[in-house]
Amino acid sequence: MASSGWRHLDVGVIGGGIGGMSVAIALRRAGHTVTIYERSDFAGEVGASVSCAANGTRWLHEWAVDVEKGDPVVLKSLINRDWYTGEPVSVYSLDDYEKKWGYVYNMFHRQYMHAMLKDTALQAEGKGEPAVLKVNQKCDKIDLDTNTITFTNGSTVQHDLIVGADGIGSAVRREVGIHPAKRPSDQSCLHCNVMTEDAVRLGLVDYSQNAALEYWGGQEGKWDKIVLSPCNGGKLLSYYCFFPREQGDYTTQQWGADSLPTEDLLRPYPKLDAQVLKHLAIGKEIQPWRLWVHEPYPYLHKQRTCLLGDAGHPMMPHQSQGACMAIEDAAALGILFSEGYFNGSVEDALAVYTQVRLPRATKVQSAAAKAAYNINERIGFSNNKDIPTYKVEDQKKVLTIEEMNAYDMYRDIEEKIAAQNGQKYSGKFICGLPIGLQLPNGVVIGSEQEEQPRL
C-alpha cells in the first residue's frame, strides 16, 4: 500500500473521553499534531466499568499504552446465572482466550482507563508529538468548507481534520447533517458500585474471586437482567441493573447527579437471587444509565470532518463492545493517516473510514439490541448452542467471537483502498476476515452460502 502523498496534519478532536483520547494516541503515533477540546473539566466524575475485549486490547498494545496503569481485571469467563437461585446456566470459558486471540479480555474502571489513555496521549514519552488538551471548550458549530470550529465561548480554531468524539449527544453529528432517528428503549438501567471489601465484611459472596463478567437472567426473553463487572483489580464490583421501563423511566435523568435511593435499585427485583440482592443493598453511587435505541446512521463523515464512537454509532451496552468500537474507530484513523496508507487527501481517507467502520459498527449495534432481551445473542454465550435454554432469532446472523477477534483491520483497509484506486485486491480476506474462516453459526467466510453482511 505504499503511498508517497503522506503529509503532516493539524487535527482537532472534539471530545476528550475514551474515544477522543484513543484517536489522539493513534493520530499522534501516525505523526500528526493533535489538539483535544473537551466540554467539561473532568471534575467530579462518577465511573462505571468498561469492557475491553481482545479486539480493543490489541490496539492498546500497538499504541504502547501502559495497560497496568488502568488497574484492570483480566477476565477468566462469562457466567450466566439463574435469576432465582444464582446457579450457573451458561458458562463461556476464557481460559484459552489469550492463546487463541493474542490478547487478554480486560475489564477497567472507566476513570482509571480514561486516565491511562490521557497519560499516553499527553505525555512526552513515546512516539509522536504529545497531544494538547483544552478543557471547558464546548463545540457550537463547524464550518465544513473551512474546517473551522466555533465554541460557545466565541473562540474559533481551524484544523486540517476534525474528529467528532463527543458522545451520544454529539454536536459534531448535527453539524455533518445527521439527525438521529431514535427512541427510548423499552428497558431502563440503574448502575451502582459495590466495594468488594464491604461485601466480604458482611459475609456475602466474594464475586471478585471469579474474575468473570456475570449475568443474572436474560434467558427468559424479558428485560430484567443484572450484569456484574469486576474492576480495579477486583476491589470494585460494577453492577448494571436492567428492568422494564414502565418500572422506572430514567431517560431524562442526568448521570453524575446525586446518588438515587437504594429503594429505587431494589424495587424491580422481588424474586432475584438473594446473594446478589444483598450486594445491591450496599450499592453506592446509584446512577441512571439512559438507554436510547438509534437507527444506524447513513455515513460517518462529511468533507474533512468525521464521527467516532458513540457520536457515530451509539449502541445498547449488551455486547460490551461500545468502548472497543470507539478504539477500533481510532485505530482505523491511525492507519488511514499513517505513512504507507495516507495519499495526502483527507477526503479520500475519510471515505475509506466510513466504508470500513460503518458496516462493522452497525452489525455490532444491531446485535447489541438483540442481546438486550436474549443473552444467547451475546458474543461468547452465542457459541453455547448445546444448553437447553439456547434459542436465537436467526442462527446465521448471530454475532460470534471469531468475527470480532479474527478481524484484521489492515487487510480491510487495504481492500477498500484498492477498490477506491480501481485496483484488484489479492489478499485472502474479505472485509478483514480470513477467507475460509468457519464461524460457530455455520457461516464460512467467502462461501457462496454466506448471506449475512460481513463485519
TrEMBL record:
Family statement: Belongs to the paxM FAD-dependent monooxygenase family.
Keyword Oxidoreductase: yes
Domain (FAD-binding): residue spans on this chain: 9-365
Keyword hit for Repeat: no
InterPro entries xrefs: FAD-bd, FAD-dep_Monooxygenase_BioMet, FAD/NAD-bd_sf
GO molecular function, one term: FAD binding
Protein name listed in UniProt: FAD-binding domain-containing protein
Keyword terms of this UniProt record: FAD, Flavoprotein, Monooxygenase, Oxidoreductase
Domain of life: Eukaryota
Ranges in coiled-coil conformation: none
